[in-house]
Amino acid sequence: MNERSSGIALLFDLDGVILDSMPLHTEAWEVYLKRFGKWVPDLEKRMHGARNDQIVSAFLGGSLTQEEIFEHGAAKERLFRELMAPRLEEHIVPGVREFLAEFADLPKAIASNAEPANIDFVLDGAGLRRFFPVVVDGHQVARAKPFPDIYLRAAELVQTPPARCIVFEDSPTGVEAGRGAGMRVAGIGTHQGALPGVEIMAADFRDPKLVEWLRELEA
């Protein structure tokens, strides 16, 4: 593969972009909330793109202490990983491995509201760690998505100006964060057929127009 010197960097959300995790996150929350006799309407919509502490407070009440919020979140994520472990490979977003290899020479980062343990679980379990020397999660910045902090921090760490960073997102929250950081945003339609504000929309990474679009940006 030819060396590239375009100076662009690729920043990826995790859930819904690297891993089609929403079905099992939804299942894990339903099982976890049932233990407390709770049911949440529009659960999937309300948790999409949010950080775990925000979700716990919304689902289990705002009077919880920070320690209680952390413990509930950690317990739910352990349940999620238990459910996902035997099915991890089948939930990797189609084409993502080939896409990462195609642009192996470009700087890359994970920039996600996901819990650090979940990021490690996916990158190590799926053998994708080598593609992502930089990982930024919502606990490393003052404000999680939809604020731009995560993406601005990732740009800083990959040493690329925000205007030369390409964000891959699947949620309106993430798109808002990427655009707020002054970056170009590509939408991955894992859960939505369209995302307002993106420059290009693809069902997954097998769509050849994603490669064509990036090559045009490199030129």
Main traits of this protein?
219 residues; alpha/beta; 10 helices; 6 strands; 44% helix; globular
What topology emerges from the helices and strands here?
Layout: E1 9-12, H1 22-34, H2 43-47, H3 52-60, H4 66-84, H5 88-91, H6 96-102, E2 108-112, H7 116-125, E3 134-137, H8 149-157, E4 165-169, H9 172-180, E5 184-188, E6 200-202, H10 208-218
Parallel strand pairs: 1-2, 1-4, 2-3, 4-5, 5-6
Helix pairs in contact: 1-4, 3-4
Write a short abstract of this structure.
This protein is an alpha/beta fold and 219 residues long.
Provide structural commentary.
- The chain is of the alpha/beta class.
- It contains 10 helices and 6 strands, in the order E-H-H-H-H-H-H-E-H-E-H-E-H-E-E-H.
- It has a 6-stranded parallel β-sheet, with helices on both faces.
- Strand 2, helix 7 and strand 3 form a beta-alpha-beta unit.
- The longest helix has 19 residues, at 66-84.
- The radius of gyration is 17 Å and the shape is globular.
- The model is unreliable at 1-5 (pLDDT under 50).
